[in-house]
Amino acid sequence: MAASHTKKAIEHLQQVKKTNFMENNSRRKFLQQATLLTAGTLWAGSNVFAGRKSKTFGIQLYSLKDEVAADAFGTLKKLAQFGYKQIESFEGKEGMFWGKSNKEFKTYANDLGMQVISSHCNVFENFEKKAAEAGEIGMKYLICPWLGPQKSIDDFKKYAAKFNECGEICKKNGIRFAYHNHDYSFKPLDGQLGQDVLMAETDANLVYFEMDMYWVVTAGISPIDYMRKHPGRFTLAHIKDRAKASTEQFDSCNLGAGSIDYQSIIHQAKKLGLQYTMVEQEKFVGSTPILSAEKNAAYMQRIL
Question: Would you say 210 and 176 are in contact if contact means Cβ atoms under 8 Å apart?
């Protein structure tokens, strides 16, 4: 009888161990599957976000020059609300930072979720000081916005030498130097294009270019064809549209309302080295700079 009880007790103990083992094994499998499922969900989620196209674009503040002069910070706040993430300033009567210090301007922009990428400035006066201030706040570029039509092709060669000097100064301050074109550098002079001379006579490691695509189109040249000749050198661009069927030289309009197909151009340009796209507009028919800035931001959101 005692042996029988002992045998049953052993069998019961073995059954308990077997049951516990099966339960624990099932629990382990459940936890493993749950962990894999969670990790997979997180991975998939991260890739969903990673796969989204960037909607990062900027604006040249000259588009709202009067508004910026009257209330720089208030204007930046409105632009941030429209979706602009990057700023390109210009040098007005109160400098590139509109009466603020370079650090105050940067901090306010950053608090709005915006980055001060670049600024147009007079590169022929106090340029070393300007480069030091730009470098101190992590700007990427200082840009020469204008040379004007020249009398001879040799004049462009002289400016190319000056640009190399500016590039050296910028490099010492951890930033880059660039030149912003108008149509005059794409018009024949002494049998050459001034723009070709600037490209050939400047050091590619020191001098970059901001293509104002509106002015290239106005000169009768394809922005993409020209960028293909100089890949990697046009790292910034001004994006402004040209009124349809216009014969006027100066006739910008809201993006999407004009004749330039920026959706196609921008995506091709990015493959050729374009990094920063800056919205710009200088003529406002039936609109205001603020309203146009808002509509232009919506256009950029659609095409990027």
Answer: no
